[in-house]
Design a protein that fits this description.
This protein has 293 residues and is α+β, with helices and mostly antiparallel strands. 25% of the residues lie in helices and 36% in strands. Strands 1, 2, 3, 4, 5, 6, 9, 10, 11 and 12 form a 10-stranded antiparallel β-sheet that branches.
Length: 293
């Protein structure tokens, strides 16, 4: 009986053993907590950087279609000295020249997607010279539905004999434009309507203290397309024969392409960081609407 009682009195943990266990649990718990926190911060940083990359890619996609359509001679009308803004004449509808009568020319335009037509804002037109292969840009022009469609469709004297085209249920237009194309221009030469688009990097309205990409049409209100960007985001320029883009713009008529330096930042600063996460993307867009060799 005495031995049994003595054994029961000695069972359990001593204070020293308990303290060692608590210390070990604290060390292991602290390490696990640090590991979880580090993993959460890493994941948060990856998410922020992914968002920054998405902003750069989306901005590039928005500008890609329009900038490729620019005419390589006269398509760029203005660039900012700090490379933060560029104004281009973007074609949205193509057609053919039918003839000139008095101060008005008649053109037969190909069908265009209804959404494109609804979003476009006519700023002028360009007509292509037969010998030079270049387009002459005519800003501040006016257009109206033609009162004499036979100027294009007719086959008589002074009529072009150009049929109006229909594609997927959409029919082309016969339009009068002024100022007129010179009457000496060859019938059937290419014509396009364009809108004046300005892309610019300026202070963001969505993310205070950051930079946003803006787009305005024909000098109208600027719409913020994408943000946030770093202050280093800018346009660069290619001249004929260039292997790399340049920051100093050549003569506007000599620009053959645009380089986009899209440095975006995260929409927020991840925990534990004192600086913004940045993603730098550079791409080149060369004009496809080029003159004949």
């Amino acid at each position: 009986m005495k031995r049994t009682r003595r054994l029961k009195a000695r069972s359990g943990f001593s204070l020293a053993e308990l303290l060692v266990a608590v210390v070990l649990l604290g060390v292991i718990g602290g390490a696990l907590t640090r590991l979880v926190v580090d993993q959460m911060r890493f994941f948060d940083g990856v998410q922020v950087k992914r968002g920054a990359r998405s902003a750069a890619r989306n901005s590039m996609n928005v500008m890609l279609a329009e900038l490729r359509m620019v005419q390589d001679s006269g398509g760029i009308t203005a660039v900012a000295n700090d490379n933060k803004s560029i104004t281009v004449s973007v074609p949205y509808q193509f057609g053919m020249f039918c003839g000139t009568s008095g101060g008005t020319s008649t053109v037969s335009m190909l069908p265009v997607d209804s959404m494109t037509a609804a979003m476009a804002s006519f700023a002028g037109y360009g007509w292509r010279g037969r010998l030079s292969g270049r387009y002459t840009m005519v800003p501040n022009a006016t257009q109206a539905a033609s009162a004499t469609p036979t100027k294009c469709t007719g086959t008589g004297v002074g009529e072009a004999g150009i049929n109006t085209v229909s594609i997927n249920g959409r029919t082309g237009q016969i339009v009068d434009i002024s100022p007129a194309i010179p009457a000496s221009t060859t019938i059937g030469m290419a014509v396009f309507f364009y809108q004046s688009v300005t892309y610019s990097f300026a202070a963001s309205g969505m993310f205070p203290g950051k930079v946003g990409l803006y787009r305005s049409v024909n000098g109208g209100a600027a719409e913020e397309l994408m943000a946030p960007f770093a202050s280093t985001a800018r346009f660069r320029y290619f001249q004929s024969g260039d292997d790399t883009s340049r920051t100093t713009a050549p003569a506007l008529s000599a620009i053959r392409g645009v380089g986009l330096e899209l440095t975006t930042t995260g929409q927020r600063r991840p925990a534990g960081r004192t600086t913004d996460i940045e993603s730098r993307m550079m791409t080149a867009i060369f004009f496809k609407n080029t003159r004949a060799p």
